[in-house]
Write a structure and sequence with these properties.
globular, 117 residues, single chain, three-stranded antiparallel sheet, binds FE2/S2 (inorganic) cluster, Rieske Iron-sulfur Protein, mainly beta
Length: 117
């Protein structure tokens, strides 16, 4: 499915519980698969961000990358950087943004919003 990275229609999202808040500490990341989406969820200073685990440069996994700054993850393959808040490609060789998914916390559970058809 092609995801429109930042313009999700709230009426066309289904929130899926992925973990307890306590299971994802500050600085940690969690890899999950929901439907056809491989997703990485980060806890950065107590806030949660979810990106697709796919690099727009060459479709490699990006979620294992190191953070180059607070919100910028570097793809382990060729070093393209993405802002995990927006999915924006902020450095070459990637020029296309990657999907981000909305995240909310309900009753101590982390939920990721997945687009429904
Ligand atoms: S696959 Fe990520 S920078 Fe090339």
């Amino acid at each position: 499915m092609n995801v429109n990275y930042t313009e999700f229609n709230a009426d066309k999202l289904e929130y899926v519980e992925i973990a307890n808040v306590d299971d994802l500490s500050n600085g940690e990341r969690l890899f999950v698969q929901i439907d056809d989406f491989d997703i990485v969820v980060f806890n950065i200073a107590g806030k949660f961000y979810a990106i697709a685990d796919i690099c727009s440069h060459d479709d490699g996994p990006v979620g294992d990358g190191d953070f180059e700054s607070e919100f910028e993850i570097a793809c382990p393959r060729h070093g393209a950087r993405f802002d995990v808040r927006t999915g924006e490609a902020v450095s070459l060789p990637a020029t296309i943004d990657i999907p981000v998914f909305p995240v909310k916390v309900e009753d101590g559970k982390i939920e990721v919003g997945i687009p429904i058809e």
